[in-house]
Amino acid sequence: MTVIADTAVQADELIVAMAALPAGHPSRPGLRDRAIEAWLPLARHLANRYANRGEPRDDLHQVAVLGLIKAVDRFEADRGVDFAGFAIPTIVGELKRHFRDRTWSVRVPRRLQELRLAITAANNTLTNTLGRSPTVADIATHLGISEDEVIEGLEGARAYQSTSLSTPVAEGGAELGDTLGGEDAGFANAELRVALGPAMASLDEREQKIVSLRFYGNQTQQQIAEQIGISQMHVSRLLTKALAKLRTHLDADAVSAL
């Protein structure tokens, strides 16, 4: 490519001159190369805005240049939009697409990627409106989808942004895999808590509160009764009913660990 002075005026003149020529004009390829060269600083500037997010800077520059080339090839000067106004969203869109596609360590369908984003947004919204963490049922109702689809989206999110075990974590050659511990008996309880999430969604709001206060808040039935405003006997009946529902969603081994 011919190196030209990097000024906005010259860059605009080049892109307008190129866009005015028909596709088969012999001067068009040369003008195209010069226009791309002139607008490279814009591509680099936009790429640098996305640096330090886990992707190599050189890779981001290449992605931004690809977006710039697409913008140059698609630009139509007669539409009344200057080139910068057209190129910037094109380049930024290419960078965002790169992150969306590359930050999923296990290749999953685009539908699940979009579902995961929708679930995350719904979770944030519902947490603010409900004043508590939303259940699977809450999210399903909010998004207008089934609970199975919500669970599928949550499972798919496990593929998001994993890190290689060979990633260096310190000077001297230590890798991430070296920091992993051995078998921990607490994992069984952690797995139980994960399994309890969908099971808790089968309870109504009052049952969820009673179970949470009893097993997570370590409160007695009498304390729960005073807090909710019902009798201790009523709490006992509701707790028995709630645990019976949970047993239908959990394996016998998981229930025995309660």
From TrEMBL:
Q: Which GO terms describe its molecular function?
A: DNA binding; sigma factor activity
Query: Which residue numbers delimit the RNA polymerase sigma-70 region domain?
Result: 36-104, 115-183, 199-247
Query: Which GO annotations describe the biological process of this protein?
Result: DNA-templated transcription initiation
Q: Would I find Zinc among this entry's keywords?
A: no
InterPro entries associated with the record: RNA_pol_sigma-70_dom (IPR014284), RNA_pol_sigma-B/F/G (IPR014322), RNA_pol_sigma70 (IPR000943), RNA_pol_sigma70_r2 (IPR007627), RNA_pol_sigma70_r3 (IPR007624), RNA_pol_sigma70_r4 (IPR007630), RNA_pol_sigma_r2 (IPR013325), RNA_pol_sigma_r3/r4-like (IPR013324)
Q: What is this protein called?
A: RNA polymerase sigma factor
Keyword annotations for this protein?
Answer: DNA-binding, Sigma factor, Transcription, Transcription regulation
Domain of life according to the entry: Bacteria
Task: Show the coiled coil region(s).
Answer: none
Which PANTHER family does this chain map to? Answer: RNA POLYMERASE SIGMA-E FACTOR, SIGMA FACTOR F FLAGELLAR
Organism the protein comes from: Actinoplanes utahensis
